Amino acid sequence: MSKCPVEYWIWLQNALGAGARTDEILSYFSTPEKLYLAGSKEWRLSGLFTAKKIEALRSSTPSETLKILNECRSKGYNIITPDSDEYSDRLKTLSDMPLVLYGVGDCSVLKDTLNIGIVGTRNASNYGIEIAQKLSFSLASSGATIVSGGALGIDSEAHAGAMLAKGRTLAFLGCGLSFGYLKENASLRRAITRYGAVVSEYQPFASASRTTFPIRNRLISGVSLGVVVIEAGVKSGSLITADRALEQGRDVFAVPGDIVRSSFDGTNHLIKNGAKPVFSAEDILSEYEYLYGDLMNIDKAKEPLSKIEYVNYRKPKNKTEKTVEKVAEANTCEKINSVSEEKTVVKKEIPDEASDDAKKVYSVLSEREMHIDDIVRQTGLRMNIVLASLTELELFGVVELVSGKKYKII
Question: Does the predicted model carry a pTM greater than 0.90?
Fold first, then answer.
């Protein structure tokens, strides 16, 4: 395909809708620009469009994408099309490949080779949550990039595990980047942009709905070598991802679960029907060692999950469960840090679940920007311990990277 101005890609995707079959259209017209210039008579003669689609194509023009372009510029969103260097080669093989992706962070993660999708229920059990984080930590430590959906439950723990391992991670959203969906996961998504990217097929202001997530799921499997399902019932949307993975020629893995709990019926059913059971990162990466052995540390992947420490950055699930942000707000005390004679700030207390190292790092931070070398010097901790602690604090939503290697409390 030859290069095409981005506004034509946006125009065509908006007209067809996310998830539309695009391979035959691009094969016939080559680019969205050539399609637009061909006109409605040629659209009808091609036999590729219904009357409703032709009307959608006619009812808008590429020049009307200015609002989207301005929003992306103002928010720093990347606009990725099949012409872009960051666009995934794997997505180009899909019959319903997305024409436009909007991303924030390091969007080159879309092209990572060892992408492994991790999906599961939002209402995960403690077992599922722990497995998701530990397995993702082990995979990321071994060289894999973790791909998931940025939602609560299994998705969040998968992203967190990758970041705690200082690995790469990619989140596909089922809504636009500027839409205020799952505000309680805002700190997690901000952290993801430091270790990879948050990406959406939907224009920035598009809202979430019951239909947007199943459409989104094909992208999680589409960029991945294989998909791991952790804790999913028989009606879970995660099984849609598994089905799409099979359609796309990707591998499907599943973590065995309690056979008397309905929340594991879906994963156990997958194993019964041929999905490879997973007990360690090695069970997944060994499938690709013959092709990509130089990109992974297979010995690291052999480490039992029982030896990996779980970081409980959220309150345990119960009747009074609160989000990370609400926990921090509820625990706010009157600890005042003097900035100057005229200005003081209230420093939040982090939950008791934080590690001792994270608490030590947090104790030296303030609203003033602080370079990581100064944090290392003041805490006396090793650089790798400080980095891991800062990631943990980011997940709690109490610390942010300001610029370069400087951090401050929020």
Answer: no
- One domain, residues 116 and 79: no
* Judgement on whether residues 171 and 85 belong to the same structural domain of the protein: no
| CATH code: domain of residue 116 | 3.40.50.450
Instruction: Specify the DSSP class assigned to residue 371.
Output: E
Number of separate helices (H) and strands (E) present in the chain:
18, 14
**What's the CA gap between 69 and 164, in Å, rounded?**
34
Radius of gyration of the chain (CA): 23
Report how far apart the first and last C-alpha atoms of the chain are (Å, whole number). 46
SS (H, E, C) 257-305: CCCCCHHHHHHHHHHHCCCEECCCHHHHHCCCHHHHHHHCCHHHHCCCH
Cα(189)–Cα(77) distance, rounded to whole angstroms? 14
* Contact assessment for residue 4 and residue 81, using Cβ atoms and an 8 Å cutoff: yes
Place of tokens 């065995």: 256
Domain membership of residue 395 as a residue range = 324-409
Task: Report in angstroms the alpha-carbon separations of 260 from 126, 232, 234.
Answer: 16, 13, 13
Q: What is the pLDDT of residues 34-50, one digit of tens each?
A: 999 999 999 999 999 99
In this structure, what token pair is assigned to residue 214?
């199943």
Q: What is the dihedral of CA 286, 291, 294, 299, to 10 degrees?
A: 10
Query: Could you tell me if residue 85 is inside a domain?
Result: yes
User: Contact, 92 vs 30, CB < 8 A?
Assistant: no
What's the domain count of the chain? Answer: 3
Same domain, yes or no: 295 and 173: yes
Q: What is the mean pLDDT of residues 46-66?
A: 93
**CATH code at position 372:** 1.10.10.10
